[in-house]
Amino acid sequence: MVDKDKSPSFSDYIYILFKWKKFLFINLFLVGIITTGIVLLIPNQYKATTTVMIPQDNSGGLGGLSSLLGGKTSIAAAGSRLFGVSNTSEDVLLGILNSRSSLVNVIKKFHLMEYYEIDDNNMDKVIKAFKNDISADPNEFGMIEFSIINKDPKVSARIANYLVSLVDSLNIKFNIQRAKANRIFIEKRYLQNIKDLRSAEESLYKFQKKYGIVAVPEQLEVTVKAAAEIESQLIKKEMESFFIKQQYGENSPQYGGSLAEINLLKKKVQELKNSTSLRSTSNVLFPFKEMPNIAIEYLRNYREIEIQQSVLEIVMPMYEQAKVEEQKSMPTVMVIDKAVPPQLKDSPKRAAIIVGILFLFTFFFIPFVFWGEIANNREVFNNPLQVKASSLTQKIIKFYKLKL
User: Fold this and answer.
1) What is the pTM of this model?
2) 99 CB-near residues (< 8 Å, 6+ apart)
């Protein structure tokens, strides 16, 4: 005697599945057969992979001209890294790979519009489909793996190898264009620097010609020393004159000669301090009155030349480097493993698909079995839907010849 008011146990659920086992087995078997047939119709996909490495540039973008920088590497090298062609990065290569121009080039070369069966010649659809078959990711060793999936293993290898060469050629072209733009920019600055340096040199030449001076610090030093010497002689003569006056008298010839020497020395001192005619009589000595003007004008001219010379020491190596980079077409990637036609398929994973579909339908049929058991055992119907459910369940039981 079965107590209908008792809640069903786990064994009750197992028993219901056992009663409906024929229904479950037949349907799962049919699902398995149909799924297998459909999966077998799916063509194999082959993945060809090529591994590339970005060469390390130890010169920091300076190339063979790093020796030109001499002791100014901290400034000039920074400028060369700024204006020269920098190292190729993974992001640059991946950006070129995903660019529309690269993808369209490959699509046209390998007739991928027919491969993806795009009838309306919509390039965007082909690009979208092709991107799903491309993968490019850095591996754990710091290299980049380019992979292409295609139904034909030979075609997948050819596309992978061609794509690497295409990316490399486009990156070289990009580097040359960038180097050309940099060269034009640096060239303008270099020519301006040459012009400014020549102007500063002309200003210094005019200054030297105006004052008849060649080495300002040295010549001003000579003037100061000469003035000090004359001042010391003047003091000495004044002391001698005093003693001569005391010994021989104020009207003596000795005292008159001494006064003449003192007056001459005082005149020379005044010339050194104030006279503007000293320049015309001496190419070495200059009056103290003009020394500040001479010194400040000389320092300004000299400073401008030093500044322009320092700029030239930075700009010239950068300019030479830019000219070299503009003509350089070295490979930017190194192929470590060339893509070869794969012998093993990449997809579809037929066994996984079949098992997955069987599990999916199993979880659909089991609730259906419990629903059918409830509908079959219902004695009181509350609405027409329950009547239809019971009728459908009876037909299923009769069709599968279930013994419930």
Assistant:
1) 0.55
2) 170
